[in-house]
Structure formats: structure tokens, C-alpha cells
Write the C-alpha cells for this entry.
Amino acid sequence: MKRQMLVLFSGFLFAIGLGISEMTRPEKVLGFLDIFGHWDPSLAFVMGGAIAVYAVALQLAGRRETPGFSDRFRIPERSDITPSLIIGSALFGIGWGLVGFCPGPALVAAAAMITPALYFVPALIAGVLLHRFTFDR
Amino acid sequence: MTEFTPYAATIGGALIGLAAALMLLFEGRIAGISGILSGLFKRGEDDTPPAWQALFIGGMALGGVVLLLVQDAVGRDMVMTKLELSPLLVVGAGLLVGFGTRLGNGCTSGHGVCGIPRLSLRSILATLIFMAMAVLTVFVTNHVFSFGGLS
């Protein structure tokens, strides 16, 4: 039960962080990406704040054999640069730049019944499943 | 157009980092939203509580509802948009983001927030690519043509 509460709370906190930083608002994200227009650097500070806290957590994790509740750390160990990584990231970037939603903010905005997110999330899920059916056998 | 909000951005970012840190320190998992969303549609795996992905996304959804309920009292727009986005554009973007993040194994959270501080070459490269493509897309859709959200 403790574990379930922690996972639920982490998701909740993640959403609150996105809300306070207004990353849930596509205009805020597009404002960051619009470096040739009325540029809003906020997103860089969101990234900076998140990365600073996570870097400390990585240090703490490095001193432990196992996580608090689980049997092992599941940290990606791949280091190969593949065409999939490059093409996938490029496609994601195009979609992100079109409307200013990436997966996290879109899910939060959809839960708050924000109209464009209600179109975006089903398409997002369709895209995930399209990838699954294309590449997993 | 939005104004630069350095304090709210940093505090919000720190909370996002803290949420990802909890997942790392207690569950040993990367808080990558595209991966978690994708995991919702897969069979459960060893150890971690079954359907943990549903719990995490449920927590995010709860957060979205709370933001909606408190934003007037707080006097800040946190979950609202004034953009008038064409539904067709939004659906196309959603497909690209869903397909692209799975092909590229991550999004802003997994590659950006969790990957950059690990100094993962894959994540740093992925972040540079999706940032650059997004900047280019915003430029082309709003300044060359005018069907983007800002135009």
C-alpha cells in the first residue's frame, strides 16, 4: 500500500510541478520554442530546476544497492546511437513544435478537460500503439 | 504571448525533479512519461506493483483536476489555454508525439529530466534533436507560414 501511495503521489507531484511552471499551457511551451519571436525562456528554468534536483537524487541512488521499495534499479544502460533514436526524436520534436504539448503536460491538461488536450491524448495513445504494432512483430 | 516567469519555472521544475527523484529512490525507475504511458498498454512485469503505470498516471490526472480547481483561487492560469488550435493539427501532432517518443525511446521527461543529469549520450542527443526540430517547426509554422498556434 505504501508503494502504491508513493507512485500515486509522485505522479501527483509531477503534475503540480508542471502546473506551477505552466508547462501545461501550450502557449508557454511554444513561447520557449519561438526563439525568433517573443521568446519566453521559462522552460529552460523548468529543465534546470528539475535536472538540479534529479542530479542530487542520482548521487543518493549511487550510494545504495537497491531502491527503497524495489529489488533493483532499472536504469537504462544503452549507449548506442541508432537511427530510431534520431528519427523518433525528430518526429517527436515536430509534433511538439506544432502545438506545444509533450506527453506529460498533455495528460495533465486532458484531466483538467482543456479542449486541445482532449483531442491530443487519444491521438498520442494511437501513435504509441501504431509504433507497437509496427515494430513489435 | 507569455511572459518570462523564472521563479515559478524553477520551483515547478524542482517539483518535477522531486517527483522523478522519488520514483528513482523508491522504485528504481525512470519517470519517463511516454514510457509509462506506453507501459499502460503492456502486460505487467515483475516486482513493481502491478499497474503502477496506471497509479502514476492516475496521480497526474488527480494533479490536473486539483490545478483546475485551485487556479482561480491562486490567481494564476495553470491549466488553460487561449490558443485556438485546429483539431486536425492537434491530432496530427499527437500522432507524431506518440509514435516519435516510442521510436526514440523517450520524451522531455525521460530523456530530458532523467537522462541529461545521468550524462547519457543517447538522452543528450535525443534532447538536442527534439528541441532543435521543435524550434524549427515553430519557426516554419508561425513565421514562414501561419497555421501554427502562435500565429
